[in-house]
């Protein structure tokens, strides 16, 4: 007869000693030297919970003196976390066994039909299957984290109705809405451009978005079509570029001011200066230092130059 | 053939300096002065003669109609065959200098104050 020599650590929570001994015996028929921890009450499991992680599987009787039914199953599943829980039940409780599965239990065994073969099969099957379930859960968690914890705000919207189906934390933070406030709302609550087109041709669009406090921001939006809960949906990544646009505008306005200054220097400051130069040339050429008219113009031009310099200095202070 | 010398400048001192310099090289005849582009344009629109010769000293920064606006309008009225324009400005701004290349009417960009040598060249070229 085949005996499994691998190491198995099993927790059995069962207040009926007769049932426990029977189960222990069936286990021993197929498994060499199993480690079986016998607990009689839920409270005992609760006290033992720090060590539960070292075990491979839990067998749980559905009615214990200190807890039973759904409450018991849920409490045990919480403690079991990453190991499978198999419920033990009699014929009379059969319907409840199904409910336990729905709650998250891995399997059920009818005590009246228990034998070493079905018990062994249940142990091996549930331990192996649960490993895969854990892997799927981990990968699901990873993908959920990629969405939920992405530093970039992401929306998922219905492709037909434009209703918001999901948003991540960065989205809540940027737009200052709570997730519940956005779900099932139209994306136009936030996207304020009249034409909010999502076709296949344009994959980056610059848009005006509105936060909860009505503040407008400029966002660069990228999107892709996906299937979400069997529906055609659009995943939208939003990149707030308000600050860079403001920065750009500021640089442009400073450039304009610099060009203005160059123009003022050329046309306003240099005009009287060129007159002064021209007049001095004339005075030299004609040797008419006593020409009253030229000297008068010279004086006037010097005054003008002084005035325009004062004017510019005042303008610069006002900037 | 009559020869006209136009000085288009809102700055009276600048106009006087140019006129005195022309006097120094003995050019007296045919000088007309305008305070802005608009006055000069209105004059040309009415009085322009195909058979006459026009030499125009054009300032850029003027009220009413500045030098650029004058150039834009006047190019539909006059021909470069008998008209030569010298931009005479206090501006040493690169943007202004580059812009002059857009106008075929412009012979030269001259930064004030004008050098008498340039005037002598002009006098000889057009036999003023």
From TrEMBL, chain A:
Domain named PAS is located at 139-195
Q: What is this protein called?
A: Response regulator
Q: Which InterPro entries match?
A: CheY-like_superfamily, PAS, Sig_transdc_resp-reg_receiver, WalR-like
Under PANTHER family, the record lists: REGULATOR OF RPOS (PTHR48111), TWO-COMPONENT RESPONSE REGULATOR ORR33 (PTHR48111:SF1)
Q: Is Cell division one of the keywords UniProt gives this record?
A: no
NCBIfam families given for it? sensory_box
Keyword field contains DNA-binding: yes
Alphabetic keyword roster:
DNA-binding, Phosphoprotein, Transcription, Transcription regulation, Two-component regulatory system
The record's annotation in Pfam families points to: PAS_9 (PF13426), Response_reg (PF00072)
Which residues are annotated with the PTM 4-aspartylphosphate? 61
What organism does this protein naturally occur in?
Answer: Flavobacterium proteolyticum
CDD domains linked to this entry: PAS
Q: Boundaries of each Response regulatory domain copy?
A: 9-126
From TrEMBL, chain B:
Q: Which Pfam families match?
A: Response_reg
Q: Read off the InterPro entries from this record.
A: CheY-like_superfamily (IPR011006), Sig_transdc_resp-reg_receiver (IPR001789), TCS_response_regulator (IPR052893)
**UniProtKB keywords:** Phosphoprotein
Report the SMART domains cross-referenced here: REC
Per the record, residues carrying 4-aspartylphosphate are 59
Q: Where is the Response regulatory domain?
A: 4-127
Q: Which PANTHER family match?
A: RESPONSE REGULATOR RCP1, RESPONSE REGULATOR RCP1-RELATED
Q: What is this protein called?
A: Response regulator
Give the source species.
Flavobacterium proteolyticum
User: From which lineage does this chain's organism come?
Assistant: Bacteria, Pseudomonadati, Bacteroidota, Flavobacteriia, Flavobacteriales
């Amino acid at each position: 007869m085949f005996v499994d020599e691998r190491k198995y650590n099993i927790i059995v929570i069962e207040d009926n000693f007769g049932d426990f001994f029977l189960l222990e015996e069936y286990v021993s028929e197929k498994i060499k030297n199993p480690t079986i921890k016998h607990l009689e009450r839920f409270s005992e499991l609760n006290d033992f919970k720090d060590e539960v992680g070292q075990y491979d599987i839990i067998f749980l009787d559905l009615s214990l003196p200190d807890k039973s039914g759904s409450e018991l199953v849920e409490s045990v599943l919480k403690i079991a976390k990453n190991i499978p829980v198999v419920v033990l039940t009699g014929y009379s409780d059969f319907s409840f066994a199904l409910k336990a599965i729905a709650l998250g239990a891995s399997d059920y065994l009818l005590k009246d039909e228990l034998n070493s073969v079905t018990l062994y099969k249940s142990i091996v099957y549930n331990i192996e299957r649960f490993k895969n379930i854990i892997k799927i859960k981990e990968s699901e968690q990873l993908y959920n984290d990629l969405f939920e914890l992405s530093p970039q705000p992401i929306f998922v919207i219905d492709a037909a109705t434009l209703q918001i189906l999901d948003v991540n934390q960065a989205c809540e933070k940027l737009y200052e809405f709570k997730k519940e406030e956005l779900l099932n709302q139209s994306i136009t609550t936030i996207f304020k451009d009249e034409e909010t087109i999502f076709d296949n041709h344009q994959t980056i669009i610059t848009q005006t978005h509105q936060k909860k406090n009505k503040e407008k921001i400029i966002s660069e939006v990228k999107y892709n079509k996906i299937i979400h809960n069997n529906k055609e949906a659009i995943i939208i990544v939003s990149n707030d570029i308000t600050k860079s646009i403001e920065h750009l505008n500021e640089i442009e306005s400073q450039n304009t001011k610099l060009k203005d200054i160059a123009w003022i220097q050329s046309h306003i400051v240099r005009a009287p200066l060129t007159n002064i130069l021209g007049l001095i040339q004339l005075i030299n050429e004609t040797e008419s230092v006593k020409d009253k008219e030229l000297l008068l113009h010279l004086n006037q031009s010097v005054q003008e130059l002084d005035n325009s310099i004062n004017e510019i200095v005042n303008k610069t202070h006002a900037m | 053939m009559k020869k006209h010398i136009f000085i288009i400048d809102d700055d009276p001192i600048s106009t006087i300096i140019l006129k005195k310099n022309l006097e120094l090289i003995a050019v007296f005849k045919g000088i007309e002065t305008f305070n802005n582009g608009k006055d000069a344009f209105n004059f040309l629109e009415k009085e322009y003669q195909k058979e006459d010769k026009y030499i125009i000293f054009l300032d850029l920064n003027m009220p009413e109609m500045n030098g650029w606006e004058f150039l834009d309008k006047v190019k539909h009225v006059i021909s470069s065959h008998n008209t030569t324009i010298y931009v005479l400005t206090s501006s040493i701004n690169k943007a202004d200098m580059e812009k002059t290349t857009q106008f075929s009417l412009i012979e030269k960009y001259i930064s004030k104050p004008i050098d008498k040598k340039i005037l002598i060249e002009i006098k000889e070229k057009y036999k003023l």
